[in-house]
């Protein structure tokens, strides 16, 4: 079933979704903040997703007035999403966030940011996915979270593709926090590997990271089962095990005293600082990542601190 679909944000993920849906016969318009003319000319997003041709049926625009679909996917970074929404009047009745993280200015997640600026029905698309895999048509499964289950069911039907399978939940809080918090653990996992601490240490960190993610999400009103699914455990496995993950690469760079290019967005860093500063659920990994990134502790000091925590039941 084809659908009229607008995708806002021509980063790697937004471009990949646009390619996948256009190839499947959906009527897709991709909005780019800049570079739309070049993308139309070359039929490629050479800066963000090189090597993947844009289907001829895919429209690329830099003009928001060209967006006329009833459903829009917002593939914009969390840290720019609020500002964009504050100055933009989107006409779509359904807005689907594809962002992962916590806004450093407000402490809100993407769906709450959208709800602050729009009366549209809001959903969250999240889960284990690399843009290059989606663009290449490789099998991928994601979570579609919407409080309104009827809308969620309709979105699940219209946005699922043969190689892009969507699972549905009404637990927006759990799905959204899973996508945000796994980035924190991915930074820590990258630091473990970058410091040469080994795969066994990474596995232990991932297991304890999932426990921390679950504590935080449940304390915020999410459901424990959600964190065991695609938006929690699934995304955690992906981002802690591959250098395709920007957060993982950032952790490796931190441990080695290196830096990533300035235009690389590391959402897990902002999330770690937000979570570490909050009272409530115990969050030693978020605190460790914030301390490492801010130069308040080394990998060795953090490892000693975590290994010397009081012994307790699992």
TrEMBL record:
Catalytic activity: sn-glycerol 3-phosphate + NAD(+) = dihydroxyacetone phosphate + NADH + H(+); sn-glycerol 3-phosphate + NADP(+) = dihydroxyacetone phosphate + NADPH + H(+)
Gene Ontology cellular component annotations, sorted alphabetically: cytosol
GO biological process: carbohydrate metabolic process; glycerol-3-phosphate biosynthetic process; glycerol-3-phosphate catabolic process; glycerophospholipid metabolic process; phospholipid biosynthetic process
Binding site for sn-glycerol 3-phosphate: 100, 127, 129, 182, 235, 245-247
The protein's annotated pathway: Membrane lipid metabolism; glycerophospholipid metabolism
Binding site for substrate: 100, 246-247
Molecular function, one GO term: glycerol-3-phosphate dehydrogenase [NAD(P)+] activity
Domain Glycerol-3-phosphate dehydrogenase NAD-dependent N-terminal: 7-149
Positions that bind NADPH: 13, 33, 100, 131, 246, 267
Main location, first listed in the record: cytoplasm
Annotated keywords: Cytoplasm, Lipid biosynthesis, Lipid metabolism, NAD, NADP, Nucleotide-binding, Oxidoreductase, Phospholipid biosynthesis, Phospholipid metabolism
Domain Glycerol-3-phosphate dehydrogenase NAD-dependent C-terminal, residue spans: 171-302
EC number(s) per entry: 1.1.1.94
Localization per record: Cytoplasm
Pfam families (alphabetical): NAD_Gly3P_dh_C, NAD_Gly3P_dh_N
Binding site for NAD(+): 9-14, 131, 246
Keyword Protein transport set for record: no
Claim: Metal-binding is one of the keywords in the record: no
NCBIfam families: PRK00094.1-2, PRK00094.1-4
Similarity-based family: Belongs to the NAD-dependent glycerol-3-phosphate dehydrogenase family.
Described function: Catalyzes the reduction of the glycolytic intermediate dihydroxyacetone phosphate (DHAP) to sn-glycerol 3-phosphate (G3P), the key precursor for phospholipid synthesis.
PANTHER family, per the entry: GLYCEROL-3-PHOSPHATE DEHYDROGENASE, GLYCEROL-3-PHOSPHATE DEHYDROGENASE [NAD(+)] 2, CHLOROPLASTIC
Name of the protein this chain belongs to: Glycerol-3-phosphate dehydrogenase [NAD(P)+]
Organism: Roseicyclus marinus
């Amino acid at each position: 079933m084809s659908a009229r679909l607008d995708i806002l944000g021509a980063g790697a993920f937004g471009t990949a979704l646009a390619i996948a849906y256009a190839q499947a016969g959906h009527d897709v318009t991709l909005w780019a903040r800049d570079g739309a003319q070049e993308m139309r000319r070359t039929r490629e997003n050479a800066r963000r997703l090189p090597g993947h041709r844009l289907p001829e049926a895919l429209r690329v625009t830099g003009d928001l007035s060209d967006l006329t679909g009833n459903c829009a996917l917002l593939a914009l970074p969390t840290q720019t999403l609020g500002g964009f929404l504050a100055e933009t009047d989107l006409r779509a009745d359904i807005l689907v966030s594809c962002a992962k993280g916590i806004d450093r200015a407000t402490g809100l997640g993407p769906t709450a940011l959208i709800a602050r600026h729009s009366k549209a029905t809001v959903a969250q698309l999240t889960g284990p996915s690399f843009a290059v895999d989606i663009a290449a048509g490789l099998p991928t499964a994601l979570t579609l979270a919407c409080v309104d289950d009827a809308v969620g069911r309709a979105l699940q039907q219209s946005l699922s593709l043969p190689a892009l399978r969507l699972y549905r939940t009404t637990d927006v809080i759990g799905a959204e926090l899973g996508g945000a918090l796994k980035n924190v653990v991915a930074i820590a996992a990258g630091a473990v590997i970058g410091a040469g601490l080994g795969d066994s240490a990474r596995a232990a960190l991932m297991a304890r990271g999932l426990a921390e993610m679950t504590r935080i999400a449940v304390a915020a009103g999410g459901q424990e089962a959600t964190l065991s699914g695609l938006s929690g455990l699934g995304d955690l496995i992906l981002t802690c095990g591959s250098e395709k993950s920007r957060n993982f690469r950032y952790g490796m760079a931190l441990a080695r005293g290196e830096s990533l290019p300035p235009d690389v967005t590391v959402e897990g860093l902002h999330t770690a600082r937000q979570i570490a500063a909050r009272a409530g659920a115990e969050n030693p990994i978020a605190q460790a990542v914030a301390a490492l990134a801010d130069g308040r502790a080394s990998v060795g000091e953090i490892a000693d601190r975590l290994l010397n925590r009081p012994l307790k039941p699992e």
